[in-house]
Write a structure and sequence with these properties.
This protein is mainly α. The protein contains 10 helices and no strands. It has 2 domains: 149 residues, no CATH class; 108 residues, no CATH class. Helix 3 packs across helix 4.
Length: 269
């Protein structure tokens, strides 16, 4: 329901949105994008019709033959790229070549190609801004679908709360065990053991003991959980636990922290 592409999500809007950022300073960056509901779609269609009436050339034709670029204000090369509308010529040859480019682009757009460099630039820039706005609106309209379809897609993307709890718990456990295996490899834990592989095995064995005799079972009725390991036997593999078991792990998380981490400040964190 939001038309912004992931590749452009970090780019600020050219103009401030009316609802939140209209009264902000000129250097304020606005990133708000409207949800494509019916009212917004109608407004876009009206603006597209207006822009098409103002633009003399055809967008498909321009996409084939136009060479001029209109980079954003954040572009490093906007004044050095010879095909940029903001290019600053450094000598007469560059100036003549750039004027010829501007003239050709204006002719392509059925506009008058006469005037000084800055006059040509400004005239073409205004047209480029209109074209860019039209392109953005057409992309938004292409993204539009009916509200019912959007809601169905949205429902399929929302995780149920239990699944979310389960995934977060597994993530917490996995990150802790990764740190524990790293500490074992470096000798920060089980430092009395000289062999790196023996330290890793000792850590893995201790984790399994905690799971089987304290978290998931007890001394009288131990569980049979086995820690998943990578093929080289040096790190934790993929952990699969249901939500009831993960809740027990999180309830006793401090015990695992004490085994996997040795730095007191890190343990408290």
């Amino acid at each position: 329901m939001c038309p912004i592409q992931s590749a452009d999500v970090h780019q600020p809007n050219n103009a401030h949105c009316i609802r939140f950022c209209n009264n902000k300073a000129d250097d304020w960056c606005c990133y708000h994008h409207p949800i494509l509901c019916g009212d917004v779609k109608e407004e876009l269609l009206e603006e597209v019709a207006t822009l098409k009436s103002r633009i003399l050339s055809d967008l498909e034709l321009l996409s084939l033959y136009s060479k001029i670029k209109c980079p954003t204000s954040h572009s490093v090369s906007r004044t050095t790229d010879k095909q940029s509308i903001y290019f600053c010529p450094q000598d007469d040859d560059d100036r003549d070549t750039f004027i010829e480019l501007l003239e050709n682009e204006l002719i392509l757009r059925r506009m008058c190609p006469t005037g000084e460099l800055e006059e040509l630039r400004q005239c073409l820039l205004e047209e480029l801004m209109l074209e860019e706005k039209l392109k953005r609106h057409l992309e938004k309209l292409q993204h539009c679908s009916n509200l019912e379809a959007c809601l169905i897609a949205l429902l399929h993307k929302v995780l149920c709360i239990l699944h979310c709890e389960n995934r977060v718990g597994i993530k917490l456990l996995t990150m802790l065990l990764l740190e524990g295996f790293s500490n074992a490899q470096l000798g920060y834990i089980f430092s009395q053991i000289r062999s790196e592989m023996d330290r890793i095995k000792a850590f893995a064995k201790r984790v399994q003991e905690i799971f089987n005799t304290y978290i998931l079972g007890d001394e009288d009725g131990p569980a049979q959980w086995t820690l998943s390991m990578t093929d080289d036997g040096k790190n934790v593999g993929m952990i699969c636990l249901d939500n009831n078991h993960i809740r027990k792990v999180i309830d006793q998380f401090e015990i695992l922290v004490d085994v996997a981490v040795r730095d007191d400040a890190r343990i408290q964190k």
